[in-house]
Amino acid sequence: MKVLRKIGSFFIAMAPFWVYIAVQLFAGFGYGIVMSLKAAVSGEVPDIMSADSQMAMSVIGQVAALIGGILTMLISRTKMSDMSPVKQNGKVYGLTVLFTIGSFFVLQLINSLSLSLMGITETDPTQDLLAQSVPFMFFTALFAPFVEELIFRGLLVTFFKKRSFSNWFTIAAITLTFALIHSQNMMIYALVFGLVLMGIRFVTGDWKLCVVFHFIGNLMSCLFSVLVPDEETGMTVLIVGSIVGGIIAVITAIIGTKAAIEVKNNAEMHEKEALICEEV
Question: Which of 22, 44, 47, 93 places its Cα 20 to 30 Å from the Cα of 3?
């Protein structure tokens, strides 16, 4: 009985994700109907697999996901302050930016090597779309990270905490879920990327730092795929970048973790003092 209650609690904690998936499916279905009706009127065959259609569905899906996330917040009465119990300072944000830039090359190298070991040679379809549209590139870098962080490192972490799941189970469950929504040749990258994001969320207590990391990581990934299309040159850049970037990432991670924990401890101390004052 206890196991069944835990399973039920898990499915309830995953509510933001169910909404995230449902609204995107509904939006995609709606877009398909509109395209079919438009084609019926014009007498043309609808091409939902074209680059324009794929980009349109991606944009519509992300907008729908944001609306779903906002509705989830309203219905569950979850505030931004609930998702970010700690407000980190500018120093931590700056160190996060440097950490993101440094770790980007390491993460990309891990992804490239893992794909080679698994024998996956085809490129991610999204990367092909990014190369065709600059506006879509910036949408993917700016808007998508905010939506995904709102759902995964914001609402889901908050829901899991409310259901009293352990930190380790929360990290594992959300990271795996985040990886599984990505394509096969991005899954390893998303798994490691998501694990780093969960680390940032739990160390700092501020989900907005995850948005910063995700935004810069996506932007650099978009620019890298466009500016360095040659595979051999790309691998050389990744190896050199990983050596330099890895050093930067380690240094900034150590300094940033110390600074973030200090902010968290000060926030907890002020909260305790406020409670004591209220009791008096």
Answer: 22
Assess contact for 106 and 242: CB atoms under 8 A: yes
Cβ-based neighbour number of residue 120 at 10 Å: 15
Torsion of CA 126, 127, 132, 136, to 10 degrees: 60
pLDDT of the residue at 254: 94
Q: How far apart are CA 232 and CA 235, in angstroms?
A: 5
Question: Helix/strand/coil (H, E, C) string of the chain?
Answer: CHHHHHHHHHHHHCHHHHHHHHHHHHHHHHHHHHHHHHHHHHCCCCCCCCHHHHHHHHHHHHHHHHHHHHHHHHHHCCCHHHHCCCCCCHHHHHHHHHHHHHHHHHHHHHHHHHHHHHCCCCCCHHHHHHHHCHHHHHHHHHHHHHHHHHHHHHHHHHHHHHCCCCHHHHHHHHHHHHHHCCCHHHHHHHHHHHHHHHHHHHHHCCHHHHHHHHHHHHHHHHHHHHHCCCHHHHHHHHHHHHHHHHHHHHHHHHHHHHHHHHHHHHHHHHHHHHHHHHHC
Q: For residue 279, what are the contacts with CB-CB under 8 A and spacing of at least 6?
A: none
- CB neighbour class for 222 (10 Å; exposed up to 12, middle 13-18, buried from 19): buried
Q: Cα-Cα-Cα-Cα dihedral of 242, 246, 247, 252, to 10°?
A: 140
* pLDDT tens, residue by residue, 112-168: 888 777 766 665 555 555 556 667 777 777 788 899 999 999 999 999 999 989 999
Write out the two tokens for 102.
């440094």
Cα distance between the two ends of the chain:
44
Tell me the pTM.
Answer: 0.87
